[in-house]
């Protein structure tokens, strides 16, 4: 785990992402325990050895490597999210998105279920989306962090 955390910090520094702050393995484990080892995006319980650290705002999009920008994800959700931000280009499974392993989901740009264009407008997430996510506090936190980052507020929503 230390190697993963250090590697992500090196990548953030290489990309010149502002706001990156080192955090300890203990802090990450505490966050995972607080989330009861559940994936933020689909709600599935994740074995601690299989958990992924997911940057809510991806490093390639300028997101910082800091604990406020981290959440727990299962392998399927983390791999399918790739470097896409929530509600801008990727739909979490808890909000109706399709995970990567769903073979019935259409592939390609036409009818792509991962692009939730109808889930937000120019002012942010639609009230119906927020109501749907209300039972999932970590998902709501991820939505707030993403929206704040892309509105130029940085760590304000954390």
**Fraction in beta strands:** 5-15%
The description of the largest β-sheet is: 2 strands, antiparallel
Q: Kindly state the number of beta strands.
A: 4
N/C terminus separation: 23 Å
Mean pLDDT: 82
Tally of helical runs: 5
Element string (H = helix, E = strand): HHEEHEEHH
pLDDT < 50 runs, ≥5 residues = none
Estimated radius of gyration:
15 Å
Shape: globular
Key descriptive features of the protein:
158 residues, mainly alpha, two-stranded antiparallel sheet, 5 helices
Task: Write structural notes for this entry.
- By secondary structure, this protein is mainly alpha-helical.
- It is 32% helix and 8% strand.
- The chain is built from five helices and four strands.
- Strands 1-2 form a two-stranded antiparallel sheet.
- β3 (120-121) and β4 (124-125) form a beta hairpin.
- The model has no long low-confidence stretch (mean pLDDT 82).
SSE topology sketch:
Layout: H1 2-14, H2 25-34, E1 52-55, E2 70-73, H3 75-81, E3 120-121, E4 124-125, H4 127-132, H5 137-150
Antiparallel strand pairs: 1-2, 3-4
What is the compact description of this entry?
The chain is mainly alpha-helical.
């Amino acid at each position: 785990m230390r190697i993963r955390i250090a590697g992500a910090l090196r990548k953030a520094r290489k990309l010149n992402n502002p706001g990156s702050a080192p955090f300890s393995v203990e802090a990450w484990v505490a966050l995972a325990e607080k989330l009861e080892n559940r994936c933020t995006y689909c709600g599935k319980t994740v074995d601690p050895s299989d958990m992924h650290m997911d940057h809510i705002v991806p490093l390639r999009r300028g997101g910082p490597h800091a604990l406020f920008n981290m959440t727990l994800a299962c392998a399927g959700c983390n791999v399918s999210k790739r470097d896409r931000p929530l509600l801008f280009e990727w739909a979490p499974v808890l909000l109706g998105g399709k995970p990567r392993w769903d073979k019935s989901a259409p592939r390609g740009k036409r009818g792509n279920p991962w692009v939730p264009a109808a889930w937000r407008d120019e002012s942010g997430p639609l009230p119906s989306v927020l109501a749907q996510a209300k039972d999932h506090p970590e998902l709501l936190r991820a939505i707030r962090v993403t929206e704040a980052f892309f509105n130029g507020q940085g760590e304000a929503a954390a």
